[in-house]
Design brief:
The chain has 415 residues and is mainly alpha-helical. Helix content is 71%, strand content 4%. The chain has a 4-stranded mixed β-sheet. It is globular.
Length: 415
């Protein structure tokens, strides 16, 4: 193995070791606080609910450790283990010309990866989630969702892969800049289309019909400057899970705020308004736009790096694959994640800052006390751990810890 191979293998080992170490810390921290409700939640979260959240969290982390090991094996198997070369050799029997051959190789690898990820997904849904009373998905619905997701991935991904391979073959040294423009157009189009055309393939969305709630929502939207062309919708999340949530999605006239029906069934009118104000904060503070720009700039840097690596024969010989455009794309897709993993704490920190900013917005435009009661219900009903490990949380968590978030909102409520 040459130096590039060794660096990649070392990165995979380091990533796996850190993931397993963080998982062990999380399990130890949650177990240590299993039998005591944090003071800030005293009288709001029962001990039995605290214990259920701890057991659920530990079960998820245990499954995550197995998934981490499987992921490492897959990465090494497809690269240094010769998996990519084997797929290329198998597909080459079809004798398709480029870029069709390369596209078929990419699609084949995609299908194999989906197959390999299925056991963990099945166990998570029908064993872990069912054990704690969250799963409401039938095997048939799981299969239908998987088929739809697979078909959607092929419909969107195959033409994008074909376009990228064609540019790599014919657009010269600066192919990666043209490819980025194609990806830019695809990303913007999908982000715009997702709420109205893609998400409804999996869930039903309906406008709010309750008169009192609709009036309060419209008043809040007007106060926060949210265009009525987007709107607020309710999603039938209860078909698949008992978990409740809310999220902001889309751009332009298709931007939407979506409530799970499971969430609306558990919180009061004023609490709904507070949660909505938080989601509107993400819109008014341009968080979605910022994340999209960051993602697109990251893609530009990544494609530029791939443009350099794709010209180097050593990039291919390091992993025993033929020097083709498809192999360059696939190798890059497998090699980059172990290195970008180390930037996870930075991304998590940025996300937590945005969540706190959205909380501030909600406290200003609604009521911090109402947001507190809504969050407490979310933590309780979703079996969210109230006592995560500090290092694990800093590395992974996109939201502030429950204790830190509620404590801060209590201070805002007193102002």
């Amino acid at each position: 193995m040459n130096w590039l191979t060794w660096i990649f293998v070392a990165a995979v080992i380091a990533e796996t070791a850190i993931r397993l170490w963080l998982a062990s810390r999380q399990i130890a921290a949650v177990h240590a606080h299993r039998d005591r409700v944090p003071d800030v939640f005293a009288g709001k979260i029962a001990l039995a609910e605290q214990q259920k959240a701890a057991d659920y969290t530990m079960a998820r982390v245990h499954l995550g450790r197995w998934a981490t090991l499987v992921d490492a094996i897959i990465k090494l198997g497809f690269t240094v283990g010769g998996g990519l070369a084997a797929v290329d050799a198998l597909v080459r029997h079809w004798q398709w010309p480029e870029p069709w051959h390369g596209c078929l190789v990419i699609v084949t690898v995609f299908l194999v990866l989906q197959l390999l990820s299925s056991p963990v997904a099945l166990w998570r849904t029908f064993r872990l989630e069912a054990r704690f009373g969250f799963n409401r998905m039938s095997p048939w619905l799981f299969a239908v969702d998987a088929a739809k997701g697979l078909l959607l991935g092929l419909v969107v991904g195959a033409p994008l892969a074909l376009a990228t391979l064609s540019l790599m073959e014919r657009a010269g040294t600066w192919w990666w800049a043209w490819a980025w423009l194609v990806w830019l157009g695809a990303t913007l189009s999908l982000t715009w289309a997702a709420p109205r055309f893609i998400a409804p393939l999996f869930n039903r969305f309906s406008a709010i019909t309750d008169g009192a709630l609709k009036q309060r929502v419209e008043m809040l939207l007007e106060r926060c400057g949210f265009s009525a062309s987007g709107g607020v919708f309710v999603m039938d999340g209860s078909r698949r899970s008992a978990h409740g949530n809310a999220y902001f999605t889309g751009i332009g006239r298709n931007k939407r705020i979506v409530f799970f029906d499971t969430l609306l069934a558990r919180i009061e009118l004023n609490e709904i308004e507070a949660v909505l104000a938080h989601e509107l904060g993400h819109f008014r503070l341009h968080h979605v736009r910022q994340r999209m720009i960051t993602s697109l700039l990251g893609a530009l840097v990544g494609l530029g790096l791939l443009g350099l690596l794709a010209r180097e024969p050593g990039f291919y010989t390091a992993f025993g694959v033929p020097q083709t455009a498809a192999m360059a794309l696939l190798l890059f897709a497998f090699i980059v994640p172990p290195f970008t993993f180390f930037a996870t704490p930075l991304a998590s920190w940025w996300s937590r800052r945005q969540e706190l900013a959205a909380d501030d917005f909600a406290a200003e435009h609604s009521n911090a006390a109402d947001l507190i009661t809504a969050l407490v219900k979310l933590y309780r009903d979703n079996a969210t751990t109230l006592t995560p490990d500090r290092v694990h949380s800093a590395f992974y968590d996109s939201h502030p810890s429950a204790v830190a978030r509620i404590t801060r909102l209590k201070r805002l409520a007193l102002q």
